[in-house]
Amino acid sequence: MTGAGIDGGDGGAIGGEPLLLGVRHHGPGSARAVRAALDAARPRVVLIEGPPEADALIPLAADADMRPPVALLAHAVDEPGRSAFWPLAEFSPEWVAMRWALEREVPARFIDLPATHSLVWGRDAGADGTDEAETDRDDGTDGTESAGRADVRVDPLAVLAETAGYDDPERWWEDVVEHRGGGTGDVFGPFLALEEAMGALRETYGHGGHDKDLVREAYMRLQVRAAQREFGAGVAVVCGAWHVPALRQKASVAADRALLKGLPKVKADMTWVPWTHRRLSRVSGYGAGIDSPGWYGHLFAVPDRLIERWMTKVAGLLRAEDRLVSSAHVIEAVRLAETLAAMRGRPLAGLSETTDAVRAVMCEGSDVPLSLVHDRLVVGDVLGEVPQGAPAVPLQRDLDRAQRRLRLKPEALERELELDLRKDIDAGRSRLLHRLRLLGVAWGEPVASRGSTGTFRETWRLRWEPELAVRVAEAGVWGTTVPAAATARAEADAVGAGSLADVTALAERCLLAELPDALPVVMQVLADRAALDTDVGHLAQALPALVRSLRYGDVRGTDTHALTEVAEGLAERIFVGLPPACAALDADAAEEIRRHVDAVHGAVGLLGDAAAAGGASVPATEGAERTPGGPLRARWHSVLRVLCGRESVPGVIRGRAVRLLLDDGELGQDEAARLMGLVLSPGTPPADAAAWIEGFVGGGAGGGMLLVHDERLLGLVDAWLTGVPADAFTDVLPLLRRTFSAYEAGVRRTLGELVRRGPGEGSGGRQAGGGAGLPGFAADLDAARADAVLPVVRLLLGLDDVPGHRGADDNDLAGVGR
Question: What is the DSSP secondary structure assignment for residue 281, as one 8-state letter?
Answer without folding.
Answer: B
